[in-house]
Amino acid sequence: MFRCKTAWFSSSVPQACSCFWMLEGGSAAGWREADYLFSADAACPDTVRIFESKDYLWNKVTVFHSLFLSVCERRQSVKSVSIGHYVLPPASVQDEVRNVVGRLIWERQDEQSVAQDSCEGCSPPTEDEDSEEGSRSHSEPSETDSSEREAPLGGHWGNYRSGSMLAGYVSIDNLQKYSGELCDFHPGYVQCSKCKANIYEDNTYESVLCRSQLQTGGNVLTN
């Protein structure tokens, strides 16, 4: 996945992430020479030094959250994961971002992992309990069953939608369908232009995080 790519890893990054990078053909380098910079904590001293550097202030480097690598490993793909979602801003900026979009993507995924771990830790029901639950579900159908089952998903996406509306995102239903040839997006292989971010002038997620604006000609790629 990362052949011929170099990365710098903060001391806050789990060793499993850096090992995965190496196993997939990537190599390590200093943060000034690396293609990608990964950190798991914006308050980590080595990451703070980068945020305070002239290279960062002049938009020459961008720090990404190391959870990007964990998601790539889980999906066994880098093409299906948008690295732009994992831009790690300084700790002082994160509160401003949360005011716009709510929880950051790695915070939501951390909560999902904790919830999954807690479910896996629960003892499985006995056969008698299974039979009792089955008999109750068949004999006493509830009108709220479907809504209750959808509640966790709806609640999660409800927060996401509300954050998206605050951020000025357009619904996918309102996007124009692109009928041309589809191609995969690879970071570093498209033309980019730098833009200044100002959350007070443009109250969007991109105004806080994005340090480059992709020039795609206005087309939307859909399957």
From TrEMBL:
Organism classification: Eukaryota, Metazoa, Chordata, Craniata, Vertebrata
Record's protein name: Telomere repeats-binding bouquet formation protein 2
Composition skew (Basic and acidic residues), residue ranges: 133-151
InterPro entries: TERB2
Cellular compartments per GO CC: nuclear inner membrane
Organism for this UniProt entry: Stegastes partitus (bicolor damselfish)
Region (Disordered): 115-155
Pfam families on file: TERB2 (PF15101)
GO terms for biological process, alphabetical: homologous chromosome pairing at meiosis; meiotic attachment of telomere to nuclear envelope
Stretches that traverse the bilayer: none
